[in-house]
Each structure stands twice: as C-alpha cells, then as structure tokens.
Design goal:
Blueprint lengths: L1 H12 L5 E4 L10 H18 L2 E4 L32 E8 L7 E5 L14 E2 L5 E10 L7 E7 L4 E10 L2
Parallel strand pairs: 1-2
Antiparallel strand pairs: 3-6, 4-5, 4-8, 6-7, 7-8
C-alpha cells in the first residue's frame, strides 16, 4: 500500500501527471480478496486526494475465458469479490474469439456507416480483423452494461474503438 501511494504521489508532485495506471492490482504475496479490496479503497482515496485519474487492471478468473463478453461482471475478478464497491468505474474486457463473430454485430461510430436518418446501421464483424470487447460493469456517471468494441492490431499496437457491440438478432 505504502509503495503504491508513494509512486502515485511522486507521479503527481514530481512529474505533474494527471493520470496513473496500475497494472494488475493485487495484494502483495496474498490472494485474499479482503486485502485487494482494502488496497483498492486506499488507491481510490489517494486518487481523490491528489485529483488523479487512475486506471487499474485486475486478473480475471480462469473460467472468464469461457464467458460471453456480455456476461462479464465483477464476479469474474480473481480474488476480489468486493472490488466493485470502491470503484467509480469498472470496465471488464476480453478478446472476442473469431469463432464467435457470427454471434455479434456492432453499431459503428463511423458516419459513413450511418443510414440517411443518422442512425447507426449494424455491421457484421470482419473475419479479417481482431476484436476486443470492454463491458462497462459499473459507471457512477452514466450508463452501464454496454460493450465497447475495439478493432486491434498487435503488430502495430493500434486499438480503435469502432462502436458498440450488440448480440445478433
């Protein structure tokens, strides 16, 4: 806890950072969810005190690999049953398997893919591309339970938010 707080304070006070990212937030040397929740609560308090935007990643449970992206929830966070409570925003993500592309479509953000009334026309996923879905599980400021769809290319490390993923009707 103290080491993370020190790094957050250093980022803000020494480097004048407005954003901090913590990769795989977990309790050092322990897998007890109470410790992870305590650490997350502490990070939230320091974030508010320093007026930082903080992003934390978590390890998901092994069975999350077999979950539909729309079914992801805070219950899929490994060793962190109560992690959702201190968070203002909780987003869970996973790669969409190409074998499952037929189950989904997306509502694009691209104006060229809108109909004449400005409504998004749903598009099929392109079998030549790779996709990642981010489900908004908790959002104190706006809507939740939506899935943002990203088209990504790891060769160039590019990630483009192309629209909202929807289940095929």
């Amino acid at each position: 806890e103290e080491a993370i707080e020190l790094e957050m304070r250093r980022a803000k006070l020494v480097y004048n950072c407005n954003h901090v990212a913590l990769d795989t937030l977990k309790a050092f040397g322990e897998e007890r969810w109470e410790q992870v929740k305590k650490l997350a609560t502490h990070v939230t308090e320091v974030t508010k005190e320093l007026n930082l935007f903080t992003v934390c990643s978590f390890q998901l449970t092994d069975d999350s690999l077999f979950c539909d992206v729309f079914d992801l929830s805070s219950n899929n966070i490994s060793a962190a049953k109560g992690i959702k409570h201190p968070a203002d925003l909780l987003v869970l993500g996973k790669r969409i398997n190409p074998e499952e592309y037929h189950k989904y479509q997306y509502e694009p953000y691209d104006d060229e893919l809108m109909d004449m009334w400005g409504e998004a026309t749903v598009q099929d996923l392109d079998p030549k591309k790779f996709y990642f879905g981010l489900k908004i599980d908790k959002n104190r400021l706006s809507e939740r339970n939506r899935v943002l769809l990203f088209d990504y290319n790891l060769n160039y490390n590019t990630w483009e938010n192309v629209g909202m993923l929807v289940k095929k009707q």
